[in-house]
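Dissemination and training. As part of the outreach component of the grant, students in the summer workshop were shown how a complex can be specified as a set of sequence lines and then modelled as a single object. The example used during the hands-on session is reproduced here so that future cohorts can follow it. Participants entered these lines:
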Amino acid sequence: MDGVHDMGGMHGFGPLEIEDDEALFHGEWEGRVLGMARLTPVHIPGGMRNAIEQLDPAEYLRSSYYEKWLHARIEGCIAAGAITREEFDATLAYYSEHPEAEIPQAQSGEKPVAAERPAATPPVPSPTFAVGDRVRARQVHPRGHTRLPRYIRGKVGEVVQVYRPQGFQDAEPLDDTVGPQPVYAVRFAGGEVWGESAEPNSCVLMDMWESYLERVPA
Amino acid sequence: MHEHPHNDPAAKTKALEALLVEKGLITSAAIDEVVKSYEEDIGPMKGAQVVAHAWVDPEYRQRLLADGRAAIAELGFTERQGAELVVVANAPEVHNVVVCTLCSCYPWAVLGLPPSWYKSYAYRSRVVREPRVVLGEFGLDLPESVEVRVWDSNSDIRYMVLPERPKSTEELAEEELSALVTRDSMIGVGRAKAPE
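and obtained this result:
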């Protein structure tokens, strides 16, 4: 989706703020969120990134990285039916009133297994493009989750590497392809992407699933 | 009474953890383990070992650049299932830098958790458009003769930069070399440190 998360090339976010000797976590809760994201055996419908992109744009910008993860995990667990919104709200009300309360631990229980990603399907399709081919990123605007950023759509680049196939991650297919697709590293010259404002001698390289690309006649 | 109890991420986190524990989906002890592993075991020291090994062993360097995932496995490090690792080498005329403009993809297996600036909107929005200006804010000024390659890691491939080996380090052992390899040099916003 053409959302605020797709921020490559946007203006207005100011200079970098670089913390020296930054702490690993800026609050204990961040580590807990990381642990839950790693361990909870609940598949978030549509995936975590999609859940994050569903945030209201102003809320997205206001939220920190781990707040976005937390949001995605809560909404994902509710959407997956693992918890209900009512019980979440009630539990939240309790811990808001009693921030020092300990979490009751189950006496015994199965050791939870980490949620595994499904193994990649064996690579089937052979790549259409080869190193050196000129390709154009398709000018598409999918409403759902996509890994094709706005700033590269319509731009022409050169294939510099052919990678192993990967499962397509967009919410909706862009063509008839089902299953894994060849993925390429494509080099886009700075001037192609940013025109007259490009910095000299620079380029952007991006991974492109095959259905993101169309051939540019020689 | 908190003023905005429902916007408090610590309380929300606790509520979620309590519910997941109650339902037997997770244990707090298992979360403790994950946190501890990131605090103690997983971090840029792994990437630094990979880089130092590549500096001293040309054949390893070749394997690393050809198949990063397999090469870090030789040193006992594993990317998560399904993720590839691609290592891109800096050279006198080429400088690589890594970003993820869409979210904040980062090579956790070799670098640990990303620093805040890597996840910041400023970095994500600007480094693809004005990499030289951004690198300058890190104190890295590159002449125009050096090509700047910005890798926007939008797929399941994670990217790590192989920085150039600093000068006058021929005598150093691999372990001493790895101490020169900074996290920032492996993201591409800095160079490896010079020996003291």
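Chain B is about 45% helix and 10% strand. Students were then asked to discuss how this feature might be tested experimentally.
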